[in-house]
Task: structure prediction
Amino acid sequence: MKTATLVLSFISFMFLTNLTAGTYTEKKSAQIDSIISLQHSEEQPGGVLAVISKGDIAEKKCFGIMNTENNKAIDKNTLFDIASVAKQFTAFSILLLEKDGQIDLDSDIREYLSYLPEYDYEITIRNLIQHTSGIASTDWLRLLSGIPFDVKWTHQDEIDIIKKYSRLNFKPNTKHVYSNAGYSLLASIVEEVSGMTFPQFLSKEVFKPLGMKTAIIYDSHQDEQLNRATGYEIVDEKAEAVSSSEEFSYGSGNIYASINDMITWGNNFFSPKVGDKNIIDRMLNKYNVLENGDSISYTYGLYVGEYKGVKMVSHSGGIPGFRSQFMIFPEDELIVIVMLNNESINSRTIATSVAEIYLADRIMEKEVAQRVETDLNLSKIENYIGNYTLPDGMEFEFVLEKDTFWLHLPGDHKFQLFAESDNEFFLKDFDAQVTFIEEPNGNVNEMIWHQGGEDYHATRTVDRVPLTTEEKAKFAGDYYHKDLKTDYKVVFDDNKLVLNPPETFERYFGAKYINLNHVNGDIFATDMFGMVEFTRDEKNEINGFILLNIGRLQNVEFLKR
Result:
C-alpha cells in the first residue's frame, strides 16, 4: 500500500510538472506571437524568429509571405539577406586563416592587397576588422556618387570604388567608425591567402562543415532560382518591393540564409564544430583599445555590450527590404535570431522583447533620471545668452525671450530650456542637457552639450557676422568631386542657398535638395550632411566645399568648376 501510494504520488508529480512546463512554454510562445502581431499584419511580408536556450531550440516561428507575386508563405527554408550580420562570418574566416598561421592581423593590408592606394598611414587587418582603419564606407561612397543600390554591383565594383577614394576619414586606431569597405577588403584578403573565391572558402570551410545546408553568398544570377525572399517596405499599408537582385558584392553583407542555417551557426558559439573555443572567446569579448585608451566594443563582426544589465553580444543588419538581428547572451547561453523581409518592422524591438521573456529574472530596468525643474535665475542667464560653436562648426544660439530660455539651432529649430540649477538646463522635447561653465571672473565662454551619454564642448562664438544677399550669392555654382566623378550644384534663390545632391538622396531619404543654413563665416548647417564648410583660394574666392562629417564619411572635398 505504501509503495503504491508513493508510485501514484510520483506519477502525479511528474504529470503536474510536465503540465506546468508545457503551459509555461505555451505562455512564452503566445507572448512572442503578441510581440510579432504588434508590428506585423497577416498576408504581408514578415520573417522568421528563433530562440536557442542552452543548446535547445526553444522557439522557431515563421510568419508572413516571402513575395507578393505568388503569395508564398515564409517557412524554415526561406532564405533572407542577413545584411551586416554577415560580417561575423567574414571575421570568422580571417580567424580561421590566422589559426592556420596564414595571416598576421597586425600586418599592413597592402602586403596582401598591393593594388590599394598608398594611404597616409599604415592600415592593418585588425584595423579593418574593428572599423578603426579610417577607410570610407562604400555605402556612402555609392550614395554620394549617385549609384543606386539596385543596379548591378559586383565585388570588383566594390573594390574599384575603394581604390579610387584614397582619403582616410582619420588616422587608423584613433576612432571607431563603421565601414563596409573594411569588410569587403577582408573578403579579398581571404581570397588572396586561400586561393579560393570568398564564396568558395566560406562554403568549404564554414557552411558545409557546420551543416548550414542552404546558406549562400549571392554573387551571381545563377542563384536566382533559390528559395530567396524578396525584400519590401510598407507604403500606405501596401507592400512595395525594394530589394535588389543585382547586388553581388560580399564581405560586408550579401549572405542569404534560412532560420535553420542561423540556428546551426548560433549553436557553434557554445559547442564549436568549426574553429575552437579560443576563436569564440575572442569574438565574444572586448579586447582592444584606441590610441587614446578608450575601449573598442567591436570585436570580430560583433558588438559587445549590455542590455538592461545583461551581457549581450550582437549585430544588426539592414539593407533595402531586409532587417535582421543576431543576439547572443553568453552568460545565459541564450541566442535570439530575427530575420525579416519587411523593413517597416523594427527587428531590434522584436529581438529585445523576446530576450526579455527569457531573461525576466535577470534584466534590470535602468531608472530614468528625474529632472527636477527649478526657477530660472534670470541674472545668471544674462551671462549665457549668445552663440557657442562645437569643434565641427555646429552652432548653438541661446536666447532669453519674455523670461523664457530658448535654444535656437540652424534651420529655424527652436527648443525651450528648463533650469535644474543656476547653470544646468534640460530639454523636454528630447533627452539632452546643457551646462554653462562660469570662469572665476564671472565670464561664460564655454558650454557643454550632454546627449546620448556623450559630452560635447562648445566655445562662445565671437565676431559672428551675417551674410549679405550679395555674399550669399557667391556660394552658388557647380561643384564636383574629382575621385567620385560626381557633380553637385549649389543654388541661390529667394535669398536662400540649397545644395542639390544626386538622385540617390531623393530616392532613399526623400531629399531632393538640402538647405544650407548659415552658421558663421563660411560654415553652413544642414539636416542631411551635417556641417558644410566652403573653402577659398589665395584670392579669397570660393573654390570648393567640404562635408565635414556625415558619419561613415568625413572631410569629403568638392571643387568649384
Remarks:
- Residues 1-21 have pLDDT under 50 and may be disordered.
- The longest strand covers residues 310-319.
- Residues 2-37 form the longest helix (36 residues).
